């Protein structure tokens, strides 16, 4: 299997996972929030922030999905690197609020790191294509 196919399968898996997870936070935050890793449920009107998290995840998945479907592979690789920061931020949030270390590292940290690896692999895959000169007009003689 080629590097491009592996990268595509991994990127598609990230898109689907992030889309599913975000949708769950929008539709059923009370069932998925305990698995986020924070030690307590938001009090008062704080539950609305769970929907904000879900909306963020859905938008992130749609951006990656659009870049994947449109074939903008270098932009996809770069976007994966940038979006991994959100998962690292979630990890830091859980750790800063004395949440589950296992969830912080095993879910958020691992997800972020795998996104970084996938993003770097996509950028490596597209490196040669980006370095090739673009010629316009009639072909030049060899």
Topology:
Elements: H1 3-27, H2 29-32, H3 48-70, H4 73-96, H5 101-131
Helix pairs in contact: 1-3, 1-5, 3-4, 4-5
Provide a descriptive summary of the structure in words:
With 142 residues, the chain is mostly helical. Helix content is 75%, strand content 0%. The protein has five helices and no strands. Helix 1 crosses helix 5 and helix 3 (48-70) packs antiparallel against helix 4. It is elongated, with a radius of gyration of 19 Å. 26% of the residues are buried.
Helix content estimate: over 70%
Q: What characterizes the major β-sheet?
A: none
Listing every helix as H and every strand as E from the N terminus to the C terminus, the arrangement reads HHHHH
Shape: elongated
- Approximate strand percentage: under 5%
Query: Counting H and I runs of at least 4 residues, what is the number of helices?
Result: 5
Give the CA-CA distance, first to last residue. 34 Å
- The number of E-state strands comes to 0
Query: Which structural class do you get from the secondary structure elements?
Result: mainly alpha
Provide the gyration radius in Å.
19 Å
Low-confidence stretches: none
Please, what is the average pLDDT?
90
